[in-house]
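For the sake of clarity, the format in which proteins appear in this thesis is described at this point. Each number in the token line that follows is a code from a learned vocabulary of backbone shapes. One such record is shown here in full, so that the layout can be seen directly:
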Amino acid sequence: MAKFVIRRMRQPDDFVAVAPLLNLIWSEPTTAERLKEDEDKIPPGKLHYNEEGELMGWDRPKWVAEDEHGQVVAYAIAWRAPWTETGALIHTVVVHPESRGNGVGTALYVALHQWAVAVKASRLIDFIRETDERSAAFAKRRGYVKERHTFESVLDLASFDGGELYNSINEAERAGIRFVTLGEVPGEASERKLYELYKVTHPDIPGYSGSFPIFEEWKKWSIEQTGVRPEWIHIAKDGDRYIGVVTLQQNDQTWAMYHEYTGVLLEYRGRHIALALKMLGVQTARTCGVPYLRTHNDSMNVPMLRINRDLIGFRAEPGNYKMVRELR
């Protein structure tokens, strides 16, 4: 019988052990330094309840499992942000492959579940790799159901030839659309216009739930994220109005870039503006010597899937299932 201890995570000491565990399930690697940097942006948890007694506010407790040698072999986190849908907690549980099958994952999940019940959460949400059949079975045995499917896609830039796709940029400009980067229009006035564009277009994303963060939080978790630079944020303008955006984020380990966000106002769709923005992003990535671009799409977002895969040629990669357990 394997021996292990479940305890609350010690920050920042445990980040060194947790980062390799997360790299087992995340499509792009992270580091202990990156995890600490993100954690330092978040104030202490402050949960509360609305008039109907539903969970609101934010918190992010973490647990680890130590084996008999004091090595961290598993990790769990339950979290919600102020803009997370009412009552919900999002969580991750990951166990090192060599420690699976001995009850570590179950014990870790029990600790997480007990906390969720104690704070009166109404639903638990997990995102599981579609190729991880063992984890999916673990979730299903505990009452989780598959709610959505998110696809991942990769574009290898060394062999990419955009050809006539770049014409979409010129066509949009001939129609009166101007393209700039946030680096060319710096300052809070531009940032607030960009914020409003994000805010208006986010609800159109299939599967999007919850509310939208306030300006300061949006700025912290979008344009001020590690790996995002003003010159990598491409904005489409109609006069002074911001009508579309593509934001790129670079991973300092793989040197690859991720499409952190793509959005176009509803009344401007169907005019290849999203394609033009995507191609500007491709140009930026190639100029920076990026090996590949990564993006993801909800299975219901057919127009964006068509742009990414059918037009540009992103290669399909294993995605994630959104698994949900109702607690009440």
Notes: The first strand starts at residue 4 and ends at 8. Residues 99 and 320 are 23 Å apart (CA to CA).
